[in-house]
Amino acid sequence: MSEEKVKVAIVGSGNIGTDLMYKLLKDPGHMELKLVSGIDPDSEGLKRARDEGIEATHEGIGPVLEDPEIKIVFDATSAKAHVRHAKMLKEAGKIAVDLTPAARGPYVVPTANLTEHLDKDNVNLMTCGAQATVPMAYAVSRAAPVRYAEMVSTVASLSAGPGTRQNIDEFTFTTARGLEEIGGAKSGKAIIILNPANPPILMRNTVYVLLEDDEVDEAAITDSVEEVVAEIQKDVPGYQLKNGPTFDERDTPGGKKPLVMMFLEVEGAGDFLPKYAGNLDIMTSSARRVGEVFARHLLGVEEVVA
To answer: Which among 128, 185, 203, 290 is annotated as catalytic?
Structure first.
């Protein structure tokens, strides 16, 4: 196996970007983190990067675009910022792994379509809620046609920084589309709740999946869900299916239809952020895995590992 590394950069030195930095340092795989970029010269994330021996700049995306060695860029800024960045990164010939809800590239959830978009120059990880819940809708849709999927994500208020709060509308829209495009639902809905409880709660998610057919193979759905949960846990050990899948029925205009319910909890790894910030941890874990697959692809190392 090649020992060569693909040089990567992180744009955004806030909570998500800093946590991703520590994940790339802990488990770089075929990547070498060359640069962390932000816009605040007093950013704690930039200071931490320098303390780790990583080049850091507060001059924004410019130094990233100008460095020909950097091939993959993780954008951990905001949806509004990534709309601007996407075009610039494309023109600079760099692959963008987008951790914002900007949705300028195809959606990616590692457990569902990890290798389907390796020919793209921009892929979108949607939202933390999507990374936690879309795999559950996807797991159900592998076993039965899905009419409707709904997720309710509750996260600690302290884990939601300015970027998350500014992106609430994008969060709900993008997550709902993820339930449809990857989760397999004909229609989807997403709700996020910021819980101010102290001590802070872990990320909790409820997923409702309404099936199309009258008959349901409960064993097949359960097996599919458990298989996907086990796959996610390879990257996010704190991802737990606390209850479900449980089965019920709901009245619809076409009569009663089977309803599948799943209740999830996500505890972070604590690499940088507190363990209650599982919502951010699942995003950075997914980003690291997606970046690794792109790096392997660029190096011609085709086999995919967890």
So the answer is: 128
